[in-house]
Amino acid sequence: MKRIFITLIITTAFLSSCKKMLNQEPKDTTYEEKFWKSENDMKKALAGAYASLRSNLLDQDYLHNLGDMTLGSEYIVIQSAPYFSNSDWNLQVGKFEMNYLDVFRNWSRFYSTILQTNLMLQKLPLVPDNTFQDDPVKGRKNIAGQTLFIRSYVYFQLLRTFGDVPLVTTPDPNPIANKPLARTDKNLVVQQILNDLDSAANCLDMSYEVETTRGTVPNKASVMALQAQVYLWRACVIKHPAFEATPDMDDVNKASALIEAIVNSGLYGLAAPGGKIDSIQYAKVFTGNSRESLFELYTRYAYNEGSNNLMPIKFLRTPILAKTDYPSLKLGASYVNNLFPRIVQVGPNPEDTVTNTDIRRRVFLYDADGANPIFVKYSNVIYNNPNQQADPYLDNNVTLLRYADLLLSRMEIAVYKGQLGLAYSQLRDFRQSRNRPQMDSATFVSEAPLSYNRLLDEIMTERACELFMEGQLYFDDVRMKRSFVPWLTPSRYNQEGFLLPLDPALFNNNRLLVQNKYWAGKI
């Protein structure tokens, strides 16, 4: 992965705040008195925080491995050894205790991002007003809002992955002398996230001053979308953790209000004349900066951020990717056959059939009717050596929050509220907007009344159709408690077996840490 150049000033200043208990090596800095003196310094620091977040989520396919590889071989088939090891097969079956999975079990690098943001929030009020190009109050609020959003996103990722995690919100002036810290109760962590997002929302506007930054720079809507996810997680997983439990309705209603505010703003979502979105405009969503985007990682080739090793490129082969006849990954049978079947029966007689015209089938699959369709949701390829068509890079931004996710969460919320008819109507409209033909009731929604669980199953299926390879389906399944992930049984779920174990290295010199209960004695 190529990266934006981040000055040594930022790196050394930030990493000097790392704590022993986070398994980071503290570094002295000689720049403390010269840095943090202007708005420009803060913008450089903010660029460093974004680079750190991007690196943490994308290195070694962290985002897609946890969010998508965990769905199992029915969705992703690992074909080629050079890019993969036994660790990847272990991820597919939930064996997080096995060797070579340290990158997933160790939270240390995420705390480097957190400690960067903590230092920024401490130094920002001290920057002189006369160094700001425009209004210093507005300038400070904008930087603070983005910084709080980044910190909140990282903590939410840690919360969903590990449960209780150390809560650190201030930089440490003396990291060498600092003693190890224990994990903080998840209820306190989630409340800190929500408090930070409240503050971030008060700092940012709903609109973008520069349209080219749409999605890659968080605004108020980005904050609200993340906050809605946090409320739903707390409602379903933290407050009512049993697999059989229904969610806490107070938090569900808070998430609902946030989503409705974004929907009613009219600032997001693709145009849908006649109730159907245009497939060409829809395909552009996965390049980046569209009206679908609420937050995405900027990973464009022109700015040295393209990826030559991110998971989506490993599905590509000729003729999409030159000189590649045998890709490392291919789609499992369930992805095509269950989500985008080739022929859809719509009538009582065998001859009453139509081809599946779902625009996602055309946008996501090349040679959809062939024996081995290619997954091309992310396939904007640029060759570093164009004459030889060699050294390919993906020139697609990586989506973390988008409008379709909100619409699907809206249906989920309607089910929790007991508004089953409304949820069904919203699901039907969503499917029609993608030009999905009415399918038979054995697999898809029919006109018959649906139960609470059946509707949630349908919504989870639709999330898989829409959001596959966006790094979140595993966490959606944990929240919605659908058993969509085959190895996450209700029994394992009730032992918090959806959480990852802590890497044994984290316990070195930290007697205060304890292992997640499902993994005690297993690692």
Mean pLDDT, rounded to whole units?
A: 88
CATH topology of the domain at 1-204 and 489-523: Serine Threonine Protein Phosphatase 5, Tetratricopeptide repeat
Secondary structure tally: strands: 10
- Shape estimate: globular
Class by alpha and beta content: mainly alpha
Q: Describe the largest sheet.
A: 2 strands, antiparallel
Task: Report strand order across the widest sheet.
Answer: 1-3
Report the CATH C-level class of the domain at 1-204 and 489-523.
Answer: Mainly Alpha
Question: Which range does the strand content fall in?
Answer: 5-15%
**Gyration radius, in Å:** 23 Å
Question: Unreliable segments (pLDDT under 50, ≥5 consecutive)?
Answer: 1-21, 23-30, 440-447
State the end-to-end distance: 31 Å
CATH architectural designation of the domain at 1-204 and 489-523: Alpha Horseshoe
Helix content: 40-55%
* Tally of DSSP helical segments: 18
Order of helices and strands: HHHEHHHHHHHHEEHEEHEEEEEHHHHH
Subcellular location: Cell outer membrane
InterPro entries: SusD-like_N, SusD_RagB_dom, TPR-like_helical_dom_sf
Organism: Chitinophaga polysaccharea
Family: Belongs to the SusD family.
Descriptive tags:
single chain, 523 residues, mainly alpha, Serine Threonine Protein Phosphatase 5, Tetratricopeptide repeat, two-stranded antiparallel ribbon, two-stranded antiparallel sheet, 18 helices, 10 strands, disordered N terminus
